[in-house]
Design brief:
Number of strands: 40
Number of helices: 2
Mean pLDDT: 90
Low-confidence stretches: none
Distance between the termini: 32 Å
Helix content: under 10%
CATH superfamily of the largest domain: Immunoglobulins
Strand content: over 45%
Oligomer: single chain
Structural class: mainly beta
Radius of gyration: 25 Å
CATH class of the largest domain: Mainly Beta
């Protein structure tokens, strides 16, 4: 019960672990609720039905069709670059259940495992694929389990990687992190010592090290195809000089621009942190940068000031951030190109000639460069008069959609909704009036 609620428009939502949020007026579990108007005479009784998140189930089987226990299983959204969505492990029957999944399409993959007899099992996409192009896609829906995502184990040689830790003073506490597309491991160690990571499948790996007091860091990448010995060399974090440029050349740093960055290894994504300029201290490795700007601006690019493509074991770039590799050296630069010629999109959302207040409006940049500039899709709510507006847009094409039936948009949902395409010119405003879309399911 909510006593003494002030007058206005409100969204009523219930939240519980392992369930989708449920809102008053919500048509679909993945959608959003309709606003409730509260007046001095309001007396609303609302019943909210919550639905479980999706799951994928299956078995890990040997060549004889017998279930294998204790094999790690990973689910990825069926898109590149690979990002782990959830994990599971097979039970004594070889049965696994990966839960807590949003609706969508997924790939399922086993992790490396060493059996009791010493036999190694290589990672494999369901049902028995080495690459995503040959992997089966499993659709996940609300309140359901997607069954029969069986994995047929492939025997193969697993390897050891011995990582030596070089830092000072000897014996100082340190940690080493090993990551691959199937997961990550952490080992506590010390300067001058080493740690052995065992049971590694042939694959690309990243090794990141840090002293416990966070005064020194190290990083390297390698492809493991046999037993290896490598050394992670710790050093103080590099000094990163951040320079701003306009489309026509250098400009003064913009107080309206906030830079955000997060570490991204092969297994996990870190949390965003604000990067102070003109100089910052960042640990070596792969980082994903984004920015917030003023309403008349947008960030064209964020890249290493040294320029040139860096050879990397990673095959795919993020499509909603700018990827920057921080070299393990004392000083380097990052160039941020800012344009003050941003465009705008706005309009009204109406149904039966009446304004629709509080409806989510989604904006999807058609070009990957636009999605990097804007950190993916944008979302806003129409106001009490049904009006909406998006500022700070790079010139280009966008798809616009107003609906209560989605919580986020992507290319597939825009295609299903047949969302119109609008073109934005530099420093210009584009009008796009919308009619609410209802999902057909």
């Amino acid at each position: 019960m909510f006593p003494a609620v002030p007058e206005g428009l409100f969204i009523l939502t219930a939240i519980r672990d392992h369930y989708f949020p449920a809102s008053f007026g919500q048509r679909l579990p993945g959608g959003q609720g309709a606003p409730v108007e509260v007046t001095a005479d309001s007396n609303l009784f609302a019943e909210l039905r919550m639905r479980r998140m999706g799951a994928i189930t299956g078995r890990v089987l040997d060549e004889s069709g017998i279930g294998l226990p204790d094999v790690p299983v990973v689910a990825y959204r069926a898109r590149l670059p690979l990002r782990i969505a959830a994990r599971g492990v097979s039970d004594d029957r070889g049965v696994f259940r990966v839960h807590g999944l949003d609706p969508g399409k997924y790939w399922v993959r086993s992790g490396p495992q060493t059996l009791d007899d010493g036999t190694g099992l290589l990672p494999v996409f369901s049902p028995e694929a080495g690459e995503t192009r040959d992997a089966r896609i499993y659709p996940v829906a609300v309140d359901t389990e997607t069954p029969d995502a069986d994995l047929h184990a492939v025997p193969g040689a697993l390897h050891r990687l011995t990582v030596g830790v070089q830092c000072q003073p000897l014996g100082a506490p340190a940690a080493v992190f090993l990551s691959s597309e199937t997961g990550g491991q952490r080992a506590n160690t010390a300067c001058g010592e080493s740690h052995v990571f065992q049971g590694l499948a042939p694959a690309a790996y990243e090794v990141y090290g840090e002293k416990q007091d966070l005064s020194e860091f190290g990083f390297f990448e390698m492809f493991v195809a046999r037993d290896e010995l490598s050394i992670v060399i710790m050093a103080p974090p590099p000094r990163v000089n951040i320079a701003f440029e306009g489309i026509a050349g250098p400009i003064e740093p913009r107080s309206s621009v906030s830079l955000l960055a997060r570490r991204q290894d092969l297994a996990e994504t870190g949390t965003d942190r604000e990067v102070k300029w003109p100089q910052a201290m960042l640990a070596p490795g792969h980082w994903e940068f984004s920015a917030r700007t003023g309403p008349g601006e947008y960030v064209e690019s964020i890249a290493s000031a040294q320029g040139g493509a860096r050879r990397t074991l990673r095959r795919d770039r993020p499509v909603d951030r700018f990827d920057v590799f921080i070299e393990a050296r004392q000083q380097l630069g990052i160039k941020v190109v800012v344009s003050d010629k941003a465009g705008h999109v706005g309009g009204s959302v109406r149904s039966d000639a009446k304004p629709v207040p509080g409806i989510p409006v989604f904006l999807w940049p058609v070009a990957e460069q636009g999605r990097r500039s804007l950190r993916g899709q944008l979302q806003t709510l129409s106001d009490v008069n049904g009006q909406y507006r998006f500022d700070g847009l790079p010139p280009g094409d966008y798809r616009v959609l107003a609906t209560f039936d989605l919580s986020e948009a992507d290319e597939e949902s825009m295609d299903v909704a047949r969302a119109p395409v609008v073109h934005v010119d530099a420093s210009q405003s584009t009008n796009a009036d919308l009619v609410p879309w209802s999902a057909p399911y």
